[in-house]
Specification:
Largest interface: A-B, 97 and 98 residues
Structural class of chain A: alpha/beta
Largest sheet of chain A: 7 strands, mixed
Number of strands of chain A: 9
Strand order of the largest sheet of chain A: 5-6-4-3-7-8-9
Oligomer: homodimer
Radius of gyration of chain A: 20 Å
Number of helices of chain A: 9
Shape of chain A: elongated
């Protein structure tokens, strides 16, 4: 379904090869840029633009127009000669590629401070993710309500999966993360977003993404260090 | 100090041009990849590798070897013919470029749930960021201690800046973010990491980075949707 095209005969890096081995997967960096293109298109639409092109999109994100076209070429043919891309159409096509044109039902595991904060985070719903269930292991938390959700015991996770929950956000202490992640995988969750600063080892059929918040601070540090004199 | 090199005559996108206009800045995407190279080098060092090359680094991150070399070429000449890059040396060089070879002192503004969680987040210190001060506007919080830090009133921020705090992490409600950010800028903070899902407008001499946690979920959704059959 997805073709692999680069100028050089790159092999997919470890962990990116699809378990079946039949298709060559798309590099992670390309998928990451899809999210950025999607946000940029949302901004362009918000600014009232109907069309854009690879050069404009690229400039706003600091990549070449050739890179934009190459990234999109993994997924098919987009845009129109002499017009470029229609913003809303490309935005919807990218949502379809990312799998976010439909709503995802998400479980939050670990209702500590970070869990609380994410239950309230408004940025998720805007992009098609709804936190529908909250879980914890602490007996004193189970049965309480946080942001309108009843905190459930881990034993109820399988039931939530049967009700349609597919992803889990893991906001548990680093020391508990691997153990909890295994329970999450056993319950049938297919994707885990891990906020604990540890690398999780899970079966191949469970996708795992880790959040590294320090990267954002690094980018900020660079911007500060390389800032010119006040204009 | 920093040269701008691409195959096409890209102009920097808006907001990237340095205020002085004398130097053409490095595209944001290049700087973002520096963080990823840095993490990958940390992994390689952890795995016991002494040297690597643009092809290996690129493959692990899904970019071409040419892209790796081009990214690094913005900042000078790295690596050795016939050897490649020495991992620790390149890691240190990237830290120097990013500005994280020295410790940054950071203020956290807004000690709600997310603020609490970030005060405990161990991922920051590992990369050279230390949260040294916590601030809030709520009178009932001021004077209390969280994770060993006394919560201070906003009026003490200028003093913290004089003591060496340069960056601020903003974990305040979206409705308060712009107002608080302005106070932060006035106090002399030079970089703001904003967790509120709003775009801040600040003077040019203050660097701003926003955190979009939904991007991580999008990447996870893509991985789930495009996962092959269980291996």
């Amino acid at each position: 379904m997805v073709r692999f095209m680069t100028e050089t005969p790159d092999l997919p890096s470890e962990g990116e090869r699809s378990p079946g081995g039949h298709e060559t997967p798309v590099p992670k960096a390309v998928v990451a840029r899809l999210s950025l293109y999607s946000r940029e298109l949302q901004h362009l639409i918000h600014e009232g633009l109907e069309t854009t092109n690879s050069s404009q999109l690229g400039k706003r994100l600091g990549v070449t127009d050739a890179q934009v076209r190459k990234d999109l070429a993994y997924f098919g043919q987009f845009g129109y000669p002499g017009i470029g891309y229609r913003c809303s159409e490309l935005a919807e096509q990218i949502r379809r590629i990312l799998g976010t044109s439909e709503l995802w039902s998400v479980a939050l595991i670990g209702v500590g401070n970070l869990g609380h904060a994410l239950l309230r985070y408004r940025g998720f719903a805007k992009q098609g993710f709804r936190i529908d269930a909250a879980f914890d292991i602490a007996p004193q938390l189970i049965g309480t309500r946080i942001e309108g959700l009843e905190v459930l015991p881990m034993s109820s996770l399988r039931e939530a999966v049967q009700r349609g929950v597919r992803l889990a956000i893991l906001t548990v202490p680093a020391s508990a993360a691997q153990h909890v992640a295994e329970q999450v995988a056993e319950a049938g969750i297919v994707g885990v977003l891990n906020f604990a600063p540890v690398t999780l080892s899970l079966p191949d059929h469970v996708a795992v993404a880790g959040v590294d918040l320090a990267i954002e601070l690094e980018q900020l540090a660079f911007a500060v260090v390389n800032r010119g004199p006040k204009g």
